């Protein structure tokens, strides 16, 4: 029998990753009253149950007073040794504060054949006892599991649906074209967004949307030309809208999903395709779920990806936004779901302005403006290489 001992803290991923790399028969989790009040035991219990791993919480672990910490640590170590005399006991010293770590390491050195520490920043597991060594983390997290460790219940993602993925593949060339030419198409997006707003309305007596007025016109009676004409041809070829040089002022949207692609979905799909092409471990578009500890409050995320057990959160905007609300959402939600080592990015098809850049610098998220969107692949590659994006 193999038993894994952890101390739960705000960041559960450091405990979870080595468990999923080499699943034990039982996880014994030590919790202070603070972590118990935050419901970390239930979050961790649900995670382990979903993976078929038994869970044994031990409450009231002291997080101050080194004498009390040592006494508690020795009591836990001796109890486990007596209860499971033939078990292999491994201690992960990543959780808790420094005093708790010192007390546990001292107590478990006598009974644990291995004591380790999860170095999430460098993506390694450090072996502290019996001899110092290290080994690399393996990829064990997907988006739902990562979110679950952060207290977010994953419900579904748009990209989970096989039919949606098939349609997205049909739109891939159009999304890539718009992404490559974002700097030249700012006004085009503004005009097409206005057409979509006129084409879509809520159904009577319902909050559901419908494509009520699919046929729209360019109002200035000037036929589109140049890059606008190329973009319309790409959208027509992808089955998103109908446009012809014979009737250049008229655009007909071919469905509600297609109209929403024009209004902003293209940027999310562009990001999703780039991340998929770079073979990230798990990429999801249009993620929906609820927070477990906040009355099941709901949130949606444009694009989430996990690679080498680190999350990338991308928010996509094609219209003008309230910078304060946008930066607050990206910062607060980003910190809540990605942990200390993931990254949050905002992609804006319109020039975001100095205010958003200042907020991004203060809150430590990345803003990718229209001039940089065509080079998104290179930014993703630098992120994957661990370099400065």
Task: Describe what you observe in this structure.
The chain contains 14 helices and 18 strands. By secondary structure, the chain is of the alpha/beta class. The strands form four sheets. Strands 3-2-1-4-5-6-7 form a seven-stranded mixed beta sheet, sandwiched between helices. Helix 5 links the parallel strand 4 and strand 5. Helix 4 runs parallel beside helix 5 (about 100-110), helix 8 (about 170-180) packs antiparallel against helix 10 (about 225-235) and helix 9 packs across helix 11 (about 255-275). The protein starts with a strand and ends in a 5-residue tail after the last helix. The relative contact order is 0.10. The mean pLDDT is about 90.
Summarize the model shown:
This protein has 389 residues and is α/β, with parallel strands linked by helices. Helices cover 42% and strands 26% of the residues.
Task: Give the secondary structure arrangement, pairings included.
Layout: E1 2-7, H1 13-21, E2 26-30, H2 33-37, H3 40-50, E3 54-58, H4 66-83, E4 88-92, H5 98-108, E5 114-119, E6 124-129, E7 133-136, H6 143-149, E8 152-157, H7 162-170, H8 172-180, H9 186-199, E9 200-202, E10 209-211, E11 215-217, H10 227-237, E12 241-244, E13 247-253, H11 256-277, E14 282-291, E15 298-307, E16 310-317, H12 323-338, E17 343-348, H13 353-363, E18 366-368, H14 376-384
Parallel strand pairs: 1-2, 1-4, 2-3, 4-5, 16-17, 17-18
Antiparallel strand pairs: 5-6, 6-7, 8-14, 9-10, 11-13, 12-13, 14-15, 15-16
Helix pairs in contact: 4-5, 8-10, 8-11, 9-11, 12-13
């Amino acid at each position: 029998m193999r038993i894994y001992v952890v101390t739960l803290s705000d960041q559960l991923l450091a405990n979870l990753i080595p468990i999923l790399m080499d699943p034990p028969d039982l996880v014994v989790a030590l919790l202070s009253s603070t972590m118990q009040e935050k419901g970390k035991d239930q979050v961790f219990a649900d995670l382990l149950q979903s993976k078929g791993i038994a869970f044994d919480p031990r409450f009231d672990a002291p997080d101050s007073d080194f004498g009390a910490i040592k006494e508690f640590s020795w009591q836990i170590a001796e109890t486990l040794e007596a209860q499971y005399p033939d078990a292999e006991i491994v201690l992960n010293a990543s959780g808790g504060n420094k005093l708790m770590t010192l007390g546990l390491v001292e107590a478990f050195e006598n009974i644990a054949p291995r004591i380790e520490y999860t170095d999430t920043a460098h993506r390694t597991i450090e072996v502290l006892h019996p001899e110092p060594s290290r080994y690399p983390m393996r990829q064990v997290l997907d988006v739902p599991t990562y979110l679950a460790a952060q207290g977010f219940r994953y419900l579904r993602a748009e990209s989970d649906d096989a039919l949606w993925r098939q349609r997205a593949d049909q739109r891939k060339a159009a999304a890539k074209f718009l992404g490559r030419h974002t700097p030249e198409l700012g006004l085009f997006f503004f005009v097409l967004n206005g057409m979509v707003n006129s084409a879509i309305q809520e159904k009577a007596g319902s909050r559901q949307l419908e494509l009520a007025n699919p046929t729209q016109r360019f109002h200035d009676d000037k036929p589109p030309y140049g890059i606008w004409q190329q973009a319309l041809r790409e959208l027509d070829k992808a089955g998103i809208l109908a446009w012809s040089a014979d009737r250049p002022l008229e655009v007909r949207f071919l469905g509600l999903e297609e109209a929403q692609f024009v209004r902003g979905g293209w940027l999310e799909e562009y990001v999703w395709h780039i991340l998929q092409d770079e073979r990230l471990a798990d990429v999801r578009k249009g993620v929906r779920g609820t927070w477990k500890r906040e009355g099941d409050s709901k949130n949606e995320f444009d694009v989430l990806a996990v690679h080498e057990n680190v999350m990338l959160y991308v928010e996509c905007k094609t219209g003008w936004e309230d910078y304060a609300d946008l930066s607050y959402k990206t910062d607060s939600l980003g910190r809540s779901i990605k942990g200390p080592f993931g990254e949050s990015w905002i992609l804006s098809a319109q020039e975001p302005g100095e205010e958003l850049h200042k907020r991004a610098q203060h809150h430590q998220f990345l803003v990718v403006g229209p001039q940089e969107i065509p080079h998104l692949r290179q930014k993703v590659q630098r992120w994957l290489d661990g370099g400065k994006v």
